[in-house]
Amino acid sequence: MDKDRMENLKAFEQIFGYTFKNRVLLDTALIHRSFINENQSDPREDNERMEFLGDAVLELCVSDLLMKRFANHDEGQLSRMRASLVNELSLARLAANFRVGDFLLLGKGEESSGGRLKTSILSNTFEALVAAVYLDCGFDETFSFLAGVFQPLVEASEKDPTFRDYKTSLQGLCQNLFKTVPRYQLMNEYGPDHDKLFQVRVSISDTLAEWGIGKSKKEAEQQAARKALEALKEPSGEEP
Description:
By secondary structure, the protein is mostly helical. It has helices at residues 3-16, 23-29, 33-38, 48-69, 75-85, 88-97, 108-112, 119-137, 139-158, 166-178, 217-232; strands at 183-190, 197-204, 208-214. The chain has two domains: 3-158, Ribonuclease iii, N-terminal Endonuclease Domain, Chain A; 166-232, Double Stranded RNA Binding Domain. A three-stranded antiparallel sheet has the order 1-2-3. It is globular and about 65 Å long.
């Protein structure tokens, strides 16, 4: 690892709020496959394996956080809350807050197509960073770190009356406004079996159609319902 890259990683640690004992882990987490594809002589590996691990660690830590905070919630409520916190859009926003895009190593093609701002790349890189923290310090410290990251999101989401179940909220609103219920349709599946993304379309008669993406069909449906609820609200933020 050259001196400039080491200095960049140190700068990222200041923003991220975690100092790595092994910065090689951090370096790997911030290498997109497009960079390695265009630099075959580089001995480093890309962050895809870390994404796989980080996804599992993130789900476990957020599940643990929610179970401890909401002792009276059932499995369905907890699953919906987790889906609202751990999805491509929310993880990409977190990555953007940490300026992840500024420190990514990307191939020239991906760079020119705006890869530093792509939701999918930012989300996947955040998962890789979670894996890097986990490999560097173990579960307990990773949980403490992620609790600090997600606590404000949990608190903000608790104030949102549609937070726990966007689908139920949308169904009730549609029955009141249009005397019908939303229809959900699986449109596409992307990625390998261990890291699939599902795209779902929700339609309300001929009035509205929105799309959602998630790591499960249920999560994608929740995201589509969330977007539909937002679209049905007046600019004032009140339902019509």
